[in-house]
Amino acid sequence: MRQIRQTVAQPVFAAFTAGGVAGAVSRTVVSPLERLKILFQVQSVGRTEYKMSVPKALGKMWREEGLRGFMAGNGTNCIRIVPYSAVQFGAYNFYKRFFEDSPGANLGPYQRLVCGGCAGITSVTFTYPLDIVRTRLSIQSASFESLKMTKEAIEARRRKLPGMWSLMGTMYRTEGGVKGLYRGILPTVAGVAPYVGLNFMVYESARAYFTPEGARDPSSAGKLAAGAVSGAIAQTCTYPFDVLRRRFQINTMSGMELHYNGIVDAIRKIIAQEGVRGMYKGIVPNLLKVAPSMASSWLSFEFTRDWILALKVRDEGDEGL
C-alpha cells in the first residue's frame, strides 16, 4: 500500500490526477455559459436565433430546454475535459523538467509559456474527437430555424438525438473516418498552444503577486483571483481561434450552411460577412465564465495535487517514527 502511495505521489502523476479533477469541476460550474458561448459562435451571417443579450439567451435556453439545455453536452465535455486537463497539467510538469536547473526550481515566464504551449498541443491531440462531438451535441437541440421547425418536430427530434458514442460513430462513417473526427484541429492547435502557455505563464506570475510577504502560498482567495486573471488574459488574446475551431467543427453539419476551405478562407469570409466582431462572437459569455471556470480549476487543482503529494510526506514521516 505504501508503494502505491509513493507512486501516486510523484509530481507528474499528482499533477495528472489533480488536472482531471480540476477539469471536471471547472466545466460543470460554468456549463450553461459554455454552451451559450458555442451557440453564439456558430451563428453565421443572417442568423438571429441567439442574437440577444446573455440573460435573454439563457432565459430562452431555459424556456425551451430546461435544465437539460443548460447541461447539454456537459457529460461529453467532462468525459473530454478530464483526460484533456489531466494530460495538460501532467504534460506541463513533464516538460518543466527540461528547463529546470534543479528539481522543483522556478521557471522564467518564457519557459512557462513554452512548456504550457507544448502541454496544450499534447492534450488537445489526445482528446480532440471528444471536443468535436461535444460541439455537435451542444447545438443539435438548440432552436436554430434551419435545424428545426415546429414544437412537435423539436420534441420528436430531441427524443431521437444520438448520444456521444453514436454520434462519434456516425461522424466516423459519414465524414471521412479519422479525418472527420479531427476536423478543425489546426485552428484549435493554433489557439490552444498560446492559450495554455499564457494561462500557465500568467497564473504563476499572478500567484506570486497574490502571495503575502513571507508566505509560501497565496490564500484560497488569492488562488481564485490568480486563476481568474490568467484565464481572462489568455482567453481574450486567443479567442478568434476558438471561434474558428467551432466553425470548422460544424462545417459539414447539415443545416448550418458553413462552407470554409481553410483557415485563411474562413477568416476572410467571417470578416467580410460579419466584420471583425464576427471573430469575437460569444466572447461576453466566455469572459463571464472564464473567472469562475479558471478560478475553480486552479483552486481544485492545487488542493487535489497538494493532498496527493502529502501522501508521500506522510509516509516519510511514518518511516521516521
From TrEMBL:
<keyword id="KW-0999">Mitochondrion inner membrane</keyword>
<keyword id="KW-0479">Metal-binding</keyword>
<keyword id="KW-0812">Transmembrane</keyword>
<keyword id="KW-1133">Transmembrane helix</keyword>
<feature type="repeat" description="Solcar">
    <location>
        <begin position="218"/>
        <end position="307"/>
    </location>
</feature>
<comment type="function">
    <text>Mitochondrial transporter that mediates uptake of thiamine pyrophosphate (ThPP) into mitochondria.</text>
</comment>
<feature type="repeat" description="Solcar">
    <location>
        <begin position="107"/>
        <end position="209"/>
    </location>
</feature>
<keyword id="KW-0472">Membrane</keyword>
<keyword id="KW-0106">Calcium</keyword>
<keyword id="KW-0677">Repeat</keyword>
<dbReference type="GO" id="GO:0005743">
    <property type="term" value="C:mitochondrial inner membrane"/>
</dbReference>
<dbReference type="InterPro" id="IPR023395">
    <property type="entry name" value="MCP_dom_sf"/>
</dbReference>
<dbReference type="InterPro" id="IPR018108">
    <property type="entry name" value="MCP_transmembrane"/>
</dbReference>
<dbReference type="GO" id="GO:0055085">
    <property type="term" value="P:transmembrane transport"/>
</dbReference>
<keyword id="KW-0496">Mitochondrion</keyword>
<feature type="repeat" description="Solcar">
    <location>
        <begin position="10"/>
        <end position="98"/>
    </location>
</feature>
<keyword id="KW-0813">Transport</keyword>
<comment type="similarity">
    <text>Belongs to the mitochondrial carrier (TC 2.A.29) family.</text>
</comment>
<dbReference type="InterPro" id="IPR002067">
    <property type="entry name" value="MCP"/>
</dbReference>
<dbReference type="Pfam" id="PF00153">
    <property type="entry name" value="Mito_carr"/>
</dbReference>
<protein>
    <recommendedName>
        <fullName>Mitochondrial thiamine pyrophosphate carrier 1</fullName>
    </recommendedName>
</protein>
<dbReference type="GO" id="GO:0046872">
    <property type="term" value="F:metal ion binding"/>
</dbReference>
